[in-house]
Amino acid sequence: MPQDELFRVKSQVPFLSMARVSGPPPPDQMIETTPCWIEYRLARDVVVRDFEQGRIRQPDICDAHPELLRVANNIGQQTDDDCPICKTNKLVWVYFAFGAQLPRGGKPIIPGNELKSMVRARPDANFYVVEVCTGCNWNFLMKMFEGAALKRGQKLSRSGPNAVR
């Protein structure tokens, strides 16, 4: 595509033309966003497959921080899923909230009522679900969602399209 045609196209699409402007875009060019929900299962599956095929060593992926392991042991949610790495221990899900006026390292949250009340009180916070194996120290970020995504009506469950798995 010739440079002058690219410039013409960029100038007609507000979010592309904003790249030339420093600072926030004018209100009339703001793009309304909806709260997001991001799943990382496909990325996790690639890492597990690379481990199984010998491209990644266990010490490179089984590196959970001691604090993450402590939280997993004390308030993590037990699952019926085996660890994809050691295949002997069950996985634990750990929930964290990050946002303004929350601890710098995030706030560990007990799933259920505490999570629901935190979402209601802090729709501006970001929530993370990490799967952890307390046996071999495997850990992987499984989901990230904004509190407003749940307030909007998405369900936090273990099955279906919005499953926390």
Task: Give the key terms.
six-stranded antiparallel β-sheet, alpha+beta, 165 residues
Instruction: Provide a count of the helices.
Output: 7
Give the uncertain stretches in residue-range form: 5-23, 157-165
Number of strands: 6
Radius of gyration: 20 Å
Rounded mean pLDDT score: 78
Helix-residue proportion: 25-40%
Termini gap? 44 Å
Tell me the overall shape: globular
String of helices and strands: HHEHHHEEEHEEH
Query: Strand fraction band?
Result: 15-25%
Please write out the topology.
Elements: H1 3-12, H2 14-17, E1 37-39, H3 41-52, H4 58-61, H5 66-75, E2 77-82, E3 90-98, E4 107-109, H6 113-121, E5 126-132, E6 139-146, H7 147-151
Antiparallel strand pairs: 1-6, 2-3, 3-4, 3-5, 5-6
Describe this structure in words.
With 165 residues, the chain is an alpha+beta fold. The chain has 7 helices and 6 strands. The protein has helices at residues 3-12, 14-17, 41-52, 58-61, 66-75, 113-121, 147-151; strands at residues 37-39, 77-82, 90-98, 107-109, 126-132, 139-146. Strands 1, 2, 3, 4, 5 and 6 form a 6-stranded antiparallel beta sheet that branches. The protein is globular and about 45 Å long. The N and C termini lie far apart (44 Å).
